[in-house]
Amino acid sequence: MYKNIQKSVKLELKNLVEYQEGQVVSKTLVQNDHMSMTVFSFDRGEEISTHASGGDAMVTVLDGTGRFTVGGEVFVLTKDETLIMPKDVPHAVYGEEQFKMLLTVSF
Questions:
Q1: How far apart are alpha carbons 99 and 72 in whole angstroms?
Q2: Percent of the chain beyond pLDDT 90?
Q3: CA gap 103, 91 in Å, rounded
Q4: Using an 8 Å Cβ cutoff, are 58 and 91 in contact?
Q5: Of 15, 53, 68, 91, which is the most exposed, with the fewest CB atoms less than 10 Å away?
Q6: Has residue 3 been placed in a domain?
Q7: DSSP result, 31-51
Q8: Are 101 and 62 in contact (CB under 8 A)?
Q9: Mean pLDDT to the nearest integer, 81-92
Q10: Which residues span the domain enclosing 62?
């Protein structure tokens, strides 16, 4: 079930979260035993440190440029690019510049 989002209206996911200086901002859209869907904004230089997920995590960059380190390999993604980070593989996210992303984790 979706939450924190209007239904039956046209929208742009990148507009669901604003940039905030020195912050990572998130808005959860779905959270249940099968999936999690969250929109994030990262200020330049902000990060989520290395961690692992209990499911496959797919990220799609909605705006700007983000750096993703997955199992020691670095990927730089820009708007409209997508990466899947496998379950249980350590990964980290860093704002090369301000950027927004949609994270979908399937368990």
A1: 21
A2: 99
A3: 13
A4: no
A5: 15
A6: no
A7: ESSSEEEEEEEE-TT-EEEEE
A8: yes
A9: 98
A10: 23-106
